[in-house]
Amino acid sequence: MRVGVSTMIQSPNDVEFVIECERLGVDTVWVPEVWGYDATTPLGLLAGKTSSIRLATGIVQLGARTPAMLAMQSMSLQMMSGGRFILGVGSSGPRIMEGWHGVPFSKPVQLTRETIDIVRMIARGDRLQYEGELFQLPPDGFGRSIRSLAPACEPIPMYVASLGPRNLELTGEIADGWLGNAMMPEAAEAFLEPLRVGCERGGRSLTDLDLVMPVAVEFTDDVEEASRRHADGYAFTIGAMGAPGKNFYNRAFAAQGLGDDVAAVAELWHAGKRDEAAARVPIELGFKTNLLGPADTIKERLRLYRSAGITSMQAKVSGPHRIDIVAQLIDVMNELNAEPSEMK
Predict the structure, then answer these.
(1) What are the structural domains of the chain?
(2) Which label site among 59, 91, 189, 250 has the fewest CB atoms less than 10 Å from its CB?
């Protein structure tokens, strides 16, 4: 398994953190995109400051840019980085797409498929002529089918963040990698089975994909405190990350056997009982979806992820000693990688 890190780039200190991660041997840095910060601009800076670490969007929100603009940004970053760029994409949700970008949140799976199709067409230098359900290029009018003035670039790896069955199947069918989330390795089949279905549709196997799992990482002897704190944080995810009935995280948690817990947390959250909602989140959710504990515990958790087929960990670290956490994680991962693999 490989080690990646996820970090916002908000100051020179963050740039230095990435440079140090590269020195330690981190495989990929993932830069998130949230309302207020875009993911592509910082990667342009990092392309000029690094030489080997892969540079990835983690993730850009589909619909916030036209497919052609996304292709242009991706090609620029691929050329600037010498072929180290990864395009991570996701459909986000209605509260962000409609409330922030003013874009209707409709048919996210189809949007993902067509955007990937168009980005790949442009990046390989094809003349852009596309007849999709959502995009017709060029549309009726004065537009003409044209190709990029920039030369075709090295193939851009495209990773999809997906949680729902249909989007997971699409990921397996057409993506180069999967960006998971909120997965307990003990319940990995809830995600891996639809990924396999998609892989079969695309004429390949699950091992052809890079399976990436984001996790918070804390080396600590107080496992209960850390697990409880991270469980509390899921109350916002369960209660606010999506309109009622359209929260993809909640569906993913339910698919892992936590449906009753999720329903109870959501009910408390929507009733304005935020503290009670946080307390109702099962502590196992905080522990099993992250890497928390002493080194031996974290190694055992990593062993479970590896056994499930996960190929890359995306570490979320914080605090003034975050580079030390990354260094310790790499040491643990190197020890694990020296052991025989027992992948399913």
Answers:
(1) 2-216+294-337 (3.20.20.30), 221-293 (no CATH)
(2) 189
